[in-house]
Each structure stands twice: as structure tokens, then as C-alpha cells.
């Protein structure tokens, strides 16, 4: 019999912990109680507060109802250094954190693009003795992270630095986690299972989407079960995130499209999440607005630095929103497809998102009104069901503009895969905060609609 522990809001280091029951010996189960769900379903519709700075963000007013129903919430974030040429700040941050031998994680694609050379030069100029480790592949694998951990220990390193996309950042987090906790990386699946403090983390994202550089998530491919597992915990929030939009210009076009749609998915899922709140909503809507206004432009004008900076900003806002409000069914489903077929995470999200918007919109239509406003699709008075349709159609249109396929079939998913993918989805931590409970049959139906 597994010991069942319920984490209460007062001790939770993450919003989702307040909504989940964790079995220490098993995967995180989607066991959100009725009370938790009904407290968020039917949130009163609120009028717009004003216009955003860089888009038409509908900043909501927090009214009496919201405060009455407000749970204890925590907002965690790293120190953030943002702007062109900020990469050179990473070496100063390493010195400040006490590094002597920083362990620099990157991958062959980012290495080829040249960015690690700048970082290594700066680290050496600062008197440090960095160790470079590049053996990470997209959708980082359990055994790669364990190999990195052995390398970290063998080389006597002290601070972990990740320079790359979400895969590199997650691998760097995994190495740091194992460095002070030992064992196998898959043992940490679930919420708050990291007992010992981990080495300082400095992250430098080279894609504009995952938000892994500010998040409390680490996503790892379980190579035996062919799925992706989620490790979650306050300990995984990096100490410093250094966001230099220059790094985005070497992204191939497909990666720019994929990561931009990932950021859009983070914004939308965080805004409708059961764990959303006034502290996260503003970031979620700002992310939606920025992606909507800038992603397509970065595809047609890749050298436009203002649009790249806006996308880096979008990814950051989306990351701040979802690391605190958590995600939903799109990510729960996407992790299963990504683990099975080793496909780009953001592309899978882009295909699934319109279907999940319609599914969730059936129970929380009013949450989609501010999203539709942030996308410039309507004013404040539009009925919720119309906003749901507008958002779903606009997400699909953006997917078409940036070249994302319309169905999972084009990515290699078959009808025969669906039952297994649906069962695995129900065990994913991200489903816990989806605003609409989903049965295995409903998840199968969603996968079929997206095929
Ligand atoms: N931890 C989190 O909070 C979180 C959130 C969302 C997604 N993720 C994970 O992130 C991963 C996806 O990350 P991603 O979409 O950023 O891509 P990625 O890190 O998987 O990179 C994809 C490819 O692009 C190359 N690349 C990256 N940046 C480049 C650049 N600037 N120039 C040239 N090439 C570059 C890489 O070398 C790699 O080959 C998935 O595993 C996903 O599950 C994690
Ligand atoms: Fe994501």
C-alpha cells in the first residue's frame, strides 16, 4: 500500500501541490477534488482594467470576489538579466555565486551556433575554470542526464550553467539535482521530491519559448517507457536567468515557430489553469499578446531585433505565468507524444492547443474573453463561447502562418497509438490544473480530433 500524503496550501512550494495528492512511490495522480475545481469554475467575468504597454493586453481588475476566493499563493522567480548583450553578465553572476569551476551545459546545435565560445571566454576572463559538456539531445534523455552528473562529479565542478534551449536547461537542472541528491533522475518524478539543496543554477535560453530558465519544472524523457516525465519543485527555479535576445537569431525557422507556439500555449494554459491568480494572470496575458503580435513577423523578418526582443520577453512572461500557475491538458498530452516520437515540443503543442481550447472553453468560457482581447480579437463584452471559438481559430491560423501541420498524423502519430497516449496523459502532473477534468475517453477523443 503506498503512503498517501496530501500537501496543504500552507506547505506547498508550488501552486499545483495544493491541488494534488502525491504518492511518494508512484506517479503524480490527477486527483483534484471537487472543491478545488468548483472554486475556480465560474469565476465572475470582470471588466478590462486598461491597455498593456506593448500590446493590447486586457489587464483585469481584481474584484471583491477574486479576493474572497484567493488561496494562499507564492510567486517564485529567479534573478533576471534581460536585454541585448546580457550574455556577458553570466560570468559575473557565476563569480557572485561563488563559482570556481562552472559546469557549462550546452548541445551540439548551440555549440555550432557559436554562443558557448563567448561564454567560455567571459568565464575565463573572470578567472574561472569552466568545464564544457555538450552531450544533450532534444527532449533530453534520462541516461544523458545521468552521464552529465558523473561528469560533473568527476570534474569537481561547483555551479551549473545551461546555455541552450529547453532541452539543455532541463538537462542542466537534472545534473544539479543529482549532484546533491544522488540516485536516478526518474526517481524524482512528481512534486517536491528533492530533499537536499542543489548547486547554484545560471540559465541562458537560446530559444524563445520554453521558459525553462525561470521555471520550477524539469522535463526528462523516460527511455524505457517512451514518455516524458515531469519533475517539479521550488529547488529547480534557477538562481539567475540571463536572457540575451541576440541568441535567437541563429535559431532555424522551424524552431522559432515551435518555441513561439510553446510560449503561447504556456500563456493560455496558465491563464485558464485551476491554480491561476492575480499574480500570474497579468504575465499570462502579456505573453499571449506579445506572441500574437510578434511571432509571425520574426518568421518573415528574422533579423528584426525589436521583434526578437519581444519574443524573448514573451517567453519570459509565459514562463513566469506557468511556473506559478502550472499548465493543463495540452502539455499533459504533448509530453506523451514528445516522449514517444522525439518531436519538437512546441510543434505538438501548436497542433493540440486549438482542440484543448474548445474542450476547456465548454466549462470556463468566460476565461477566454481576456485571452481573445489580448489577441486583439474582440472587445470586453463578447460572450464567452464566442471568445472560445475566436481563440481556437486564431491559434490555428497562427499555426498555419508559421508552418505547423494541422494534425498529429503528419507528425507520425497513428490511431493505434491513441489508447496508450491517453492512459499516460492521465498520469501527467500538468493535467492536475486543467480547468476541466478529463477522463481517458475524453483524452482519446481529443487525440482523435487532433489526428
Ligand atoms: N522545464 C520547463 O519548464 C520546460 C517548459 C517547456 C518545455 N520544456 C522542454 O524543453 C524542450 C524543448 O526545448 P526547445 O524547444 O527550446 O528546443 P531544444 O532545446 O530541444 O533545441 C532544439 C534544437 O535546436 C537547437 N538550438 C537551440 N537554440 C538554438 C539557437 N539559438 N541557434 C541554433 N540552434 C539552436 C538545439 O541545438 C537543438 O538541436 C522539450 O524537451 C520540452 O519538454 C521544458
Ligand atoms: Fe511547453
Automatic annotation (TrEMBL):
<feature type="domain" description="Alcohol dehydrogenase iron-type/glycerol dehydrogenase GldA">
    <location>
        <begin position="78"/>
        <end position="245"/>
    </location>
</feature>
<comment type="similarity">
    <text>Belongs to the iron-containing alcohol dehydrogenase family.</text>
</comment>
<dbReference type="Pfam" id="PF00465">
    <property type="entry name" value="Fe-ADH"/>
</dbReference>
<keyword id="KW-0520">NAD</keyword>
<feature type="region of interest" description="Disordered">
    <location>
        <begin position="37"/>
        <end position="56"/>
    </location>
</feature>
<dbReference type="InterPro" id="IPR018211">
    <property type="entry name" value="ADH_Fe_CS"/>
</dbReference>
<protein>
    <submittedName>
        <fullName>Iron-containing alcohol dehydrogenase</fullName>
    </submittedName>
</protein>
<dbReference type="InterPro" id="IPR039697">
    <property type="entry name" value="Alcohol_dehydrogenase_Fe"/>
</dbReference>
<keyword id="KW-0560">Oxidoreductase</keyword>
<dbReference type="InterPro" id="IPR056798">
    <property type="entry name" value="ADH_Fe_C"/>
</dbReference>
<dbReference type="Pfam" id="PF25137">
    <property type="entry name" value="ADH_Fe_C"/>
</dbReference>
<dbReference type="InterPro" id="IPR001670">
    <property type="entry name" value="ADH_Fe/GldA"/>
</dbReference>
<feature type="domain" description="Fe-containing alcohol dehydrogenase-like C-terminal">
    <location>
        <begin position="257"/>
        <end position="451"/>
    </location>
</feature>
Amino acid at each position: 500500500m503506498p503512503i498517501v500524503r496530501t500537501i496543504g496550501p500552507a506547505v506547498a512550494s508550488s501552486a499545483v501541490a495544493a491541488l494534488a495528492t502525491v504518492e511518494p512511490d508512484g506517479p503524480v495522480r490527477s486527483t483534484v477534488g471537487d472543491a478545488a475545481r468548483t472554486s475556480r469554475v465560474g469565476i465572475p467575468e470582470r471588466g478590462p482594467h486598461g491597455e498593456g504597454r506593448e500590446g493590447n493586453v486586457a489587464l483585469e481588475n481584481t474584484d471583491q470576489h477574486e479576493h474572497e476566493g484567493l488561496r494562499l499563493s507564492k510567486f517564485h522567480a529567479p534573478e533576471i538579466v534581460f536585454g541585448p548583450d546580457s550574455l556577458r553578465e553570466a560570468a559575473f553572476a557565476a563569480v557572485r555565486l561563488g563559482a570556481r569551476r562552472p559546469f557549462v551545459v550546452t548541445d551540439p546545435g548551440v555549440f555550432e551556433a557559436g554562443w558557448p565560445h563567448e561564454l567560455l571566454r567571459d568565464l575565463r576572463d573572470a578567472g574561472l575554470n569552466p568545464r564544457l559538456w555538450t552531450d544533450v539531445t532534444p527532449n533530453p534523455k534520462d541516461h544523458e542526464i545521468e552521464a552529465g552528473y558523473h561528469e560533473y562529479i568527476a570534474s569537481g565542478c561547483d555551479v551549473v550553467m545551461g546555455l541552450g534551449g529547453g532541452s539543455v536547461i532541463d538537462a542542466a537542472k537534472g545534473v544539479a539535482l543529482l549532484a546533491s541528491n544522488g540516485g536516478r533522475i526518474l526517481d524524482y518524478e512528481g512534486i517536491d521530491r528533492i530533499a537536499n539543496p542543489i548547486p547554484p543554477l545560471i540559465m541562458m535560453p537560446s530559444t524563445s519559448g520554453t521558459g525553462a530558465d525561470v521555471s520550477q519544472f524539469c522535463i526528462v524523457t523516460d527511455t524505457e517507457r517512451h514518455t516524458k516525465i515531469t519533475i517539479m519543485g521550488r529547488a529547480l527555479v534557477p538562481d539567475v536567468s540571463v536572457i540575451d535576445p541576440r541568441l535567437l537569431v541563429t535559431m532555424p525557422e522551424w524552431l522559432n515557430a515551435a518555441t513561439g507556439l510553446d510560449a503561447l500555449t504556456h500563456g493560455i494554459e496558465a491563464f485558464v489553469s485551476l491554480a491561476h491568480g492575480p499574480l500570474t494572470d497579468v504575465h499570462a496575458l502579456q505573453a499571449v499578446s506579445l506572441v500574437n503580435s510578434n511571432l509571425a513577423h520574426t518568421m518573415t523578418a528574422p533579423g528584426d531585433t525589436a521583434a526578437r526582443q519581444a519574443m524573448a520577453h514573451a517567453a519570459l512572461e509565459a514562463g513566469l505565468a506557468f511556473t506559478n500557475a502550472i499548465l493543463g491538458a495540452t502539455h499533459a498530452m504533448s509530453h506523451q507524444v514528445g516522449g514517444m516520437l522525439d518531436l519538437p515540443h512546441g510543434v505538438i503543442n501548436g497542433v493540440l492547443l486549438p482542440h484543448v481550447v474548445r474542450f476547456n472553453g465548454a466549462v470556463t468560457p468566460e476565461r477566454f474573453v481576456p485571452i481573445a482581447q489580448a489577441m486583439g480579437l474582440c472587445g470586453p463584452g463578447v460572450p464567452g463561447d464566442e471568445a472560445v471559438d475566436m481563440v481556437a481559430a486564431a491559434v490555428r491560423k497562427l499555426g498555419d502562418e508559421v508552418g505547423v501541420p494541422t494534425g498529429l498524423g503528419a507528425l507520425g502519430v497513428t490511431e493505434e497509438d491513441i489508447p496508450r497516449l491517453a492512459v499516460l496523459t492521465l498520469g501527467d502532473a500538468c493535467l492536475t490544473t486543467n480547468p476541466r477534468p478529463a477522463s481517458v475517453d475524453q483524452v482519446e477523443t481529443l487525440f482523435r480530433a487532433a489526428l
